[in-house]
Design a protein that fits this description.
By secondary structure, the chain is mostly helical. The chain is built from 6 helices and no strands. The chain is 79% helix and 0% strand.
Length: 117
């Protein structure tokens, strides 16, 4: 692995992380009540979350200049880990054994690809 590859892979991971942050922002906005439907969709939190989504899409397109397409889904699978951590830390969601097993399978898959890829 060369330095350029690691830089672009890190950029893709950063985009995935920002996408998870954006999902949290949208969930926080969805938990609020609004006086009208238009204010539900046209409020600063929702608009900024969608701006982040557009930005992460551009980051992904840029990162795929160097990151092989076969590695992209592996790196993007880390979003499940981020979203789970955010769900527990921010929304006080509970993790059951099925979620733990699922996360362990995701982590194992990332590890297998990293070692045997």
């Amino acid at each position: 692995m060369n330095r350029e590859f690691l830089l672009y892979a890190g950029l893709l991971l950063f985009g995935v992380f920002l996408s998870a942050v954006s999902q949290v922002m949208l969930k926080k906005a969805a938990l609020r009540t609004y006086p009208s439907k238009i204010k539900e969709y046209l409020n600063p939190l929702v608009i900024f979350a969608y701006v982040i989504f557009v930005g992460t899409t551009l980051i992904s397109v840029y990162a795929y200049r160097v990151v092989p397409l076969s590695l992209g889904p592996i790196l993007e699978a880390t979003s499940y880990i981020y979203v789970t951590i955010f769900g527990v830390a921010i929304f006080r969601e509970t993790i059951n054994i099925k979620k733990i097993c699922g996360l362990l399978l995701i982590i194992a898959g990332i590890g297998v690809y990293a070692l045997l890829g």
